[in-house]
Amino acid sequence: MGKLWFFEDVNLFKILCPHRYEGYKQEHIFSTYKKSDYIYFEDDAASKIYLIDKGKVKIGYYTEDGNEIIKAILTKGEIFGEKAILGIEKRNEFAQSIDNATVVCPVSKDTMYSLMRDNVSVSFKIYKFIGVRMKKLERRLQLLLFKDTRARLLEFFKELCEEYGHECDKTGDQVIEHPYTQKDIATLIGTSRPTLNTLMNELKQEQIIDFNRKEIRLLKKVA
């Protein structure tokens, strides 16, 4: 999720992209994907880690019934495919571009290991980042299984507020400036776009939130 997956507001793309390092940038290229292009599939070899330079990528898997389950929607500055660092040999999820021009920086496991060996603090941040992401995914799956749609939406707003929110000095409201469309949000909380629209309008009428296309505002009385 955008900064949702940053570790303590650190943009891992800026730290890890091989173009930042003289010894790696000559042999390194970026990859561009159109909307709906797959970057990798389930059961593909897990040989690379990917950093997003532009666009959005959704991470998910398919159930035995063919239903699509979305685990995350990631944006500029985030990394994915990180389980390759942990020695997992095959993907258990897919990664798909959802923008018309998504640009990613693929990094081989060997290159990533080398970068991590050269900088212990970066290595620590990556492993802690992976731990934080796994915990958040586990929490999201629990919400999908045990909470109704309204509860999932409110919990999602809390996550957004933690990573994108800032307090409005004049009102004390929490203002969330985020990169997600309503379609993205509906996908992430496991509902339809019409249902999401209905819920958001209900929350607005109850003076719990206010929103427009660019921001969501958690009103002071409930923030």
Automatic annotation (TrEMBL):
One of its GO terms (molecular function) is DNA-binding transcription factor activity. The keyword Transcription regulation applies. Residues 12-91 form the Cyclic nucleotide-binding domain. Pfam families: cNMP_binding, HTH_Crp_2. It comes from the Bacteria. SUPFAM superfamilies: cAMP-binding domain-like (SSF51206), Winged helix' DNA-binding domain (SSF46785). Residues 147-222 form the HTH crp-type domain. This is CRP-like cAMP-binding protein. CDD domains: CAP_ED (cd00038). It comes from Tenacibaculum gallaicum. Keywords: DNA-binding, Transcription, Transcription regulation. GO terms for cellular component: cytosol. Gene3D superfamilies: Jelly Rolls.
